[in-house]
User: What shape does this take?
Amino acid sequence: MPSPYADTIIVLDFETTGLSPDQGDRAIEIGAVKIDNGVVTDTFQELMNPGRRVNSFIEQYTGISNVMLSTARPCAEVMQRFAEFIGDDNLLAHNASFDKKFLDAEFQRINHNYQGQFACTLLTSRRIYQDAPNHKLGTLVDYKGLAEDGGYHRALFDAKMTAKLYLTMLEDIQQRSGMHRIEFGFLQKIANTSKRQVERLFS
Assistant: This one.
């Protein structure tokens, strides 16, 4: 069973051949960070071979070349290992609807179902950081003054920065709500509440 608390979670990020698995796009890299009781305890990163070439835009955007993918393990093999990594934990991503689509599609190919539910730092940030310039990951990292060392659009770096942002968000939610420990359900409630109504959750 997933933890009822928001501070035990798997933060994940995919790099992909395109925007939609429904159009035949595949994952080419997975990066993830395991958070237990508010502490990062493990990471997972692996390239995966989708069985076809990626276009030059994706190569330039991610820095992941066809040469790199040619020696990577097949998607199915990587996703089997990733299924073991996430166990029954809840899941989190920045713009989670995107990553969930690819996780669902790749897991469907190996006939695997996961227990956890998704949370989204993008949706949550729109509610609790309404004065941020925008809600892109890099903008929010700068907005909160979080240190960064690496480059975006690689899966593990993006997952690490999302995890940093998320832990900061949990601290801010704790301070505003007066709660000692945030439950996962409360986090989902924030994301599903309109911007105008969200302040009532903290009163």
Observations:
- The longest helix spans residues 155-177.
